[in-house]
Amino acid sequence: MSEQFTRNFKKQPTHHTLKGPRESVINSIQMLYALGYAEIAEWTPLEPTDIPGEVITTMTKYWLLP
User: Fold this and answer.
1) Fewest CB atoms less than 10 Å from the CB: which of 14, 27, 36, 53?
2) pTM higher than 0.85 for the full model?
3) How far apart are CA 57 and CA 19, in angstroms?
4) Could you write out the three-class secondary structure of the chain?
5) What distance in Å separates the CA atoms of residue 58 and residue 51, rounded to the nearest whole number?
6) Dihedral sign from CA coordinates of 48, 53, 54, 56
């Protein structure tokens, strides 16, 4: 993109959260990677929640929007 084109746009964050059983969260991360939406390294490390067997991870994606 040219600088003149992007000058009128602002970088807007979109926060994504995945929460659930470890296998489901890992599968979701891998699917989003396979679709070309997010790199695996963009996600925070899996953290346990207060619910046994459940983990949570987050990722922030930035979009140029008017």
Assistant:
1) 36
2) no
3) 7
4) CCHHHHCCCEEEEEEEEEEEEHHHHHHHHHHHHHCCCCCHHHCCCCEECCCCCEEEEEEEEEEEEC
5) 17
6) positive
